[in-house]
Design a protein that fits this description.
Blueprint (H helix, E strand, L loop, with lengths): L1 H20 L6 H11 L7 E5 L5 H10 L4 E6 L9 E5 L5 H11 L4 E6 L9 H19 L3 E12 L4 H8 L3 E7 L2 H4 L4 E9 L9 H13 L24
Helix pairs in contact: 2-3, 5-8, 6-8
The structure holds S-adenosylmethionine (SAM).
Amino acid sequence: MADHWIENHKRDSWRKQAKASGYRARSAFKLKQIQERFGLVRHGDTVLDVGCHPGGWAQVAVELVGPEGHVVGIDLEPCQPVEGAVLLTGDITDSYTQERILEELGGELINVIVSDISPDITGKWDMDQSVAMTLVADVFDFSLPLLKKGGAFTTKLFQGIGVQELIDAVKPHFSTVRRYSPDASRNSSSEVYLVCRNHMPWKSPKQSIRERYEEAVDVLVGGNEIEEGPAPTSTSFTVRRKKKD
Ligand SMILES: C[S@@+](CC[C@H](N)C(=O)[O-])C[C@H]1O[C@@H](n2cnc3c(N)ncnc32)[C@H](O)[C@@H]1O
């Protein structure tokens, strides 16, 4: 009970700070703390903000890239405008939405991808966590080819089955991949951020991240095991070869 009270109190405190600082969501502090720790975004950068509603991360990203930078956000939910950002509405896994993101980038490669994406929660934890992990793998597969050499990618993950498998699938694309819990999310249960730095496109495996991730999870949960057939029956039957003349 006491833990629950402390957790709620801390969340309220981040919410109040967000309000006082003019941010739309307390999640803004998570990106600020990721930035303080890892310095992912620089002035003049192009940033893709995945799952940007209501716009807290987009506000922080605009501050970080400055007037020379470019921030493009995407979410299923329409966002109130954020000055200095272009916020699109659509499903990131949908090819039409992907075309619109490409159009908005106008051939420009991205310096940093920040993803706070989380799908609708049904309340069945295992299923929600597994859907969230697959969605993150899809976000990687769509956006990695748009990321500059040396670029960075941070994404939210929900703790549970497959986290290590996703990390393993992502590792070949970057020189460092770390898990990080910003203070602003430390008390919100199960989420953790993956911080991937120094994109190495020339090392990218041919197979997609989602395929490699799903294969690894299948092995983990035993989905790829070949069922043993029935035991062979013994017989006294023998084959006699015809003698050659
Ligand atoms: C935790 S919120 C993001 C908060 C945001 N970072 C901020 O600071 O305001 C997660 C968002 O992911 C979005 N989302 C979930 N699935 C999506 C999808 N397939 N395509 C685009 N956005 C998606 C949800 O609509 C939701 O708004």
